[in-house]
Amino acid sequence: MSHLIAPSVLAADFANLGRDIEMINSSEADWFHVDIMDGVFVPNISFGFPVLETIRKYAGKPLDVHLMITDPDRYLERFKNAGASVITVHYEACTHLHRTIAAIKDLGCRAGVALNPHTPVHLLEDLIEDADLVLIMSVNPGFGGQKFINRTYDKIRALKSIAAGRNENLLIEVDGGVNLSNAAALLCAGANVLVAGNFVFTAKDPVNTISEMKNLIPGLMQA
Ligand code: DX5
Ligand code: ZN
Fold first, then answer.
1. Atom number of ligand 1 nearest to Cα 37
2. Which of 27, 190, 207, 216 could disulfide-pair with 160, CB 3.0 to 4.6 Å?
3. How far is CA 43 from CA 8, 70, 71, 79, in A?
4. What is the edge-to-edge ordering of all strands in the sheet holding 193-196?
5. What is the pLDDT of residue 47?
6. Set 35, 38, 64, 132: catalytic member
7. What CATH architecture is 4-214?
């Protein structure tokens, strides 16, 4: 499978959201990455259901919803109904993660687990068959435009080896500070979904930037 590109709507111009959604629609992006922050799990608040439903109305691609909220079980069904195709919850925000993953799948969505930079991947040993996707945070969650944490490469490799032979279809998503200087190395390490917010939306030509990320051939690059 070729890797997927998921531009993060958090970096869009909200006064021109329709225009920015159209830009993603017309690009080679695969998903819309949608960041939901509650001001409790992370020190920031992004947006909620009305905005998500509006994005869904105009987006021509699946919505990859990243929940940076405490106790996400309360809202899973509402996120599904608001248009989520992928629902990712944080390991650190769930007491009964196995149950939460099952609930997401029961809704017909793909189930993802996100790990903060300080959370080791080995904590997913007993869950690796159940998750459709693991999102490795390469910045501390809460804000776009932060500096990429280099430790991420080792985490991706470690996760790959945990998933080997147990969940070969696992999607490994990297989120935070992703750009064209680190994307190829991330793919080489084993990532197959790249989220990019500021790098895409501050580019002179975002459609072309997305195309460049999509058409990277990791085998030909240096890790
Ligand atoms: C951060 C969010 C990210 C963010 C990425 O908490 O989860 O998805 O939008 O933005 P960049 O690519 O600018 O780091
Ligand atoms: Zn995110």
1. 6
2. 190
3. 18, 12, 16, 21
4. 4-7, 193-196, 171-175, 133-137, 110-115, 84-90, 63-68, 32-37
5. 97
6. 35
7. Alpha-Beta Barrel (3.20)
